[in-house]
Design a protein that fits this description.
It contains 12 helices and 12 strands. By secondary structure, the protein is of the alpha+beta class. Helix 11 runs antiparallel to helix 12. The strands form 3 sheets. The protein has a 5-stranded antiparallel sheet. A 4-stranded antiparallel sheet has the order 9-10-11-12, sandwiched between helices. The protein has a 3-stranded parallel sheet with strand order 1-3-2, with helices on one face.
Length: 328
Amino acid sequence: MLRLPPFTYQAPDTLAEAARVLAGEGPNAMLLAGGTDLIPKMKRRQITPRVLVGLRKIGELAHVAGTPERGLAIGAGVSLTAIEMHAAIGAAYPAIREAASVISTPQLRNAGTIGGNLCVDTRCTYYDQTFPWRKSIGFCLKKDGDTCWVAPGSPKCLAVTSSDLAPVMIALDASIELVGPHGDRRIPAAAMYQDDGIAYLAKRPDECIRRIILPPATGWRSTYLKVRRREAFDFPILGVALALRMDRGAIAEVRLAIGGVGSAPRAIAGAGELLNGHVPTAARYADVGQLAYKATKSMDNTDLLPLYRKRLVPVLVQRALAALAPLA
């Protein structure tokens, strides 16, 4: 049986207090919301904080405010189940509902939060193992070792992004509001992530997510498609998030983001150049699929073969485009 290492639990009443605890404890402390990823990693000794800062008592994190016409603000502590069942989110931002509904299992979605999924740790075949397993191969660069076993010559960790909601927030042009001991700040969702399996978040260690700010949804359509080994449970090995707006039969604006390959979700910037102002055609959709294919680089760090995952990229991109803007 895997047991938790010793730790101290603190339950602040406000985000400002939580940020002060994080700042005071430094690398010894971590935030705890649903704990669906953190607790198993602690049992496997992948993460060993001495202090857990619980967020359940902070009421402002548990609310959704605003309207789709003016924009919504989703508290970081809103559960994935609540996201999935929220009528306004599902109607105006369907990609969020679709992504939340395919995260893990119903039981874990009841506990997991939107903020937790946006900050979920990167993962890797050589990292997500028990301590004895990792010790037997000499550990890896992400934890306790000095070699990335995915690519032993790599100077950085190549663990892969695991969040379903991160590419969705990038495609929707959402912003993330952070609270820290030195004040609040708001950053685009795309700026939250860094292409490094260890330092994968631009959020500072002493900062907490307060809420996710969504722009007005009027005129926008969105969707999220996911590939995983087991359809009922697993992390993404590829996620495609798409948002677009139509105008008189032509695509007026499009935003495409890819997750599940690479250490950070990424926007496919050139998609708009190929589609904006044009009516949907199979040829243009194929061009966007190839653009996304060339922009993604899959590695042998998770389920299934890297080339298989890469070849799925244009397939899912074209399916997403056809779902939102059917071919004439």
